[in-house]
Specification:
The chain is mainly alpha-helical. It has 17 helices and no strands. Helix 1 (about 5-45) crosses helix 11 (about 230-255).
């Protein structure tokens, strides 16, 4: 890293601000995970389509990721991420007002806006990758993601008491959704304080990543064929798809399949988010040290085992423990996959490749949520758990074949 102490201070300050913004993001997403299915059913009356609510959110998030990534490569990271937080504020407000009015169309619009916001804000990890050298890049990404640990505490602390002892009705959902807009406003303010833009920092600190003479960014079709990228994408698709589908359907299953109170969902989702990010700093160090497909396979395997356990778990704490394992497995695969994608791209390319990964992962997640909602309604939690296990373990077995392959050098790293 450059010896310029001012730039080093900027990296530390930007990392702290981005990490704090992920905390408020994760608190908002816990509300989505806990209530998306229930909100959709109460607003529309279509219980057989309970997976459609999460699917709308996930599909919107997916479709936003690639154009947002391209925009980040053109205009910088901060303006795009800030726009995501602004859209999130509008989306939570629209959702709250619409569920109170029992307007299914309004809820769909609100979910779509929240999804677009999520898909955009999640690209903050590319901004983290800009500011750190290849040998410390996973650690830098982990520092930003670590902020979500505090969101895991904040979400249940804020939303749990709101639902304690209350009957779940459309009117009771208005205030929580509108209140979530306060989190997104806080995220917007935090991101606007990030300066200089991480993209500019990356261009200044690591010009060698693009070669001695800067070259134009490669097209996406070339990026996805680079060595190591297909494996990282496969792991990202499967790990994210399984994680978000099961996470978004668990809230409905806990209340309607197992008969627990709505307030009990938030400790479960909080445990899941805690698993997603609590150990991320250690995982970043593990990825930096070992790299390769080992961490990807370990993450997918842990996800599969955790999903399978849901076929038998009915208690709140047992479900919370399994959701913690699901989150931890995703964390392993997510950090390893993101690091691999960032390492194989130059600063002017990584937004679009990470955006493509999020686009495809989100579409997989939306498809699994929609089909999983139908399976849950028709056949119960056991069938959903087994199906999610298969989707996680098949790619793990495929990727395990490449353990003997030598590690690839990041783009721009000296031979």
């Amino acid at each position: 890293m450059s010896a310029d102490p001012g730039l080093q201070r900027a990296v530390r300050r930007n990392t702290a601000l981005l990490a704090t913004s992920t905390a408020v993001t994760s608190a908002t997403l816990q509300l989505v995970a806990a209530l998306a299915s229930t909100t959709f059913v109460l607003a529309t009356g279509y219980e057989g389509l309970l997976g459609l609510g999460p699917a709308i959110f996930l599909a919107s998030s997916a479709f936003a990721a690639l154009p947002a990534g391209r925009a980040m490569d053109r205009v910088g990271r901060v303006p795009v991420i800030a726009t995501g937080f602004a859209l999130g504020t509008v989306g939570t407000t629209v959702t709250g007002l619409s569920v109170g009015a029992e307007s299914g169309l309004g809820v769909v619009v609100g979910f779509a806006l929240i999804g677009i916001a999520s898909g955009t804000v999640l690209l903050a990890r590319a901004a983290a990758g800009d500011m750190y050298p290849p040998e410390r890049r996973a650690r830098g990404i982990s520092l930003v993601l670590f902020g979500s640990v505090f969101g895991a505490i904040l979400g249940p602390a804020v939303f749990g008491p709101i639902f304690s002892g209350r009957e779940l009705t459309p009117d009771s959902l208005v205030f929580p959704w509108i209140a979530a807009g306060g989190f997104t406003i806080a995220g917007l303010v935090l991101v606007l304080c990030v300066r200089p833009d991480p993209k500019k920092i990356g261009e200044q600190l690591f010009p060698a990543a693009e070669g001695v003479a800067p070259a134009p960014a490669a097209p996406l079709r070339e990026l996805i064929r680079r060595p190591g990228v297909p494996s990282a994408l496969l792991a990202a698709f499967s790990s994210f798809g399984v994680m978000v589908a099961v996470m978004n359907l668990t809230g409905y299953a806990v209340v309607h399949e197992h008969g627990h109170a709505q307030s009990s969902v938030f400790p479960i989702i909080g445990a899941h988010v805690f698993g997603m990010f609590a150990l991320v700093l250690f995982i970043g160090q593990i990825v930096d040290r070992f790299g390769g497909n080992v961490v990807l396979v370990a993450g997918l395997a842990l996800e599969g085992v955790s999903c399978l356990g849901l076929a038998w778990a009915e208690g709140v704490w047992a479900t919370a423990a399994l959701l913690f394992g699901l989150g931890l497995g995703w964390n392993l695969a997510f950090v390893a996959a993101t690091t691999a994608l960032v390492n194989r791209t130059a600063v002017s390319e990584r937004g679009r490749l990470v955006g493509f990964s999020d686009l495809s992962s989100g579409l997989v997640g939306a498809s699994l949520a929609l089909s999983g909602g139908w399976i849950l309604q028709a056949y119960g939690v056991g069938a959903l758990a087994v199906g999610a296990t298969v989707v996680a373990l098949l790619p793990a077995l495929f990727l395990a074949r490449s353990f003997v392959s030598p590690p690839r050098r990041p783009v721009g790293e000296a031979a």
